[in-house]
């Protein structure tokens, strides 16, 4: 991929502006709902560039905004003690993708259906619960499945988000826990890509340049989230899942 600074020097300022706005919007969505930066960014960037080029821009801003989301909360160590088996499972599942040949279209279809159904269920008001005694064995399995699906499709939310919400965390703890899970998933995915030669210096440099607009958008989204009532936050959260499921369904059908 051509470096973005070289692109700008050769007259690509319109494209640079488009990419900047995309990352501001994607960061804003993530700041409000705690998720969605990769999906929003890839969906919009793919209008102007190949999907693989779009995905290459996401690793650094996704990793840094997820880390920001994680550290912006309270007691990180307390959440780590509770969630580390799930995080370990995410790394294992992502690593397995490196040696498995999963059909991308089928994976996208399953993800789309799961997201859409979960969004509908959440908007209906019904809630799942995971008992404390079940966390020890269910957490690692939720992590492995998340790693497999995120490694195959780049979508980091299923089944880790339904699992985390079923733990009945409060709004800020839920967003922080998602940041922890997404950080682990992004770093694991970057490691797998690098091991297969798909993450090189030019892609890393371009991805680094996308951090600032993503961070600005995320800051604006977090300020908005701080003023939102919990009921409105949950509604926005599940609507985001519905939209994500619809987008993935369209992507699966188009492929």
Structure description:
The model is unreliable at 7-11 (pLDDT under 50). α2 (13-33) packs parallel to α12, α5 (59-71) packs antiparallel against α10 and α6 (76-97) packs parallel to α10. This protein has helices spanning 4-9, 13-33, 37-45, 51-56, 59-71, 76-97, 104-124, 135-153, 160-166, 171-195, 201-209, 211-226, 230-254. It is an all-alpha fold and 255 residues long. It has one domain (4-254). It is globular and about 55 Å long.
Tally the beta strands. 0
The outline comes out as globular
Tell me the quaternary state. Answer: single chain
Order of helices and strands: HHHHHHHHHHHHH
Structural class category: mainly alpha
Number of helices: 13
Q: State the distance separating the first and last CA atoms.
A: 23 Å
Q: Average pLDDT value?
A: 78
Key words describing this protein structure:
255 residues; mainly alpha; 13 helices; 0% strand; globular
Would you spell out the secondary-structure blueprint of this structure?
Layout: H1 4-9, H2 13-33, H3 37-45, H4 51-56, H5 59-71, H6 76-97, H7 104-124, H8 135-153, H9 160-166, H10 171-195, H11 201-209, H12 211-226, H13 230-254
Brief characterization of the structure:
Helix content is 78%, strand content 0%.
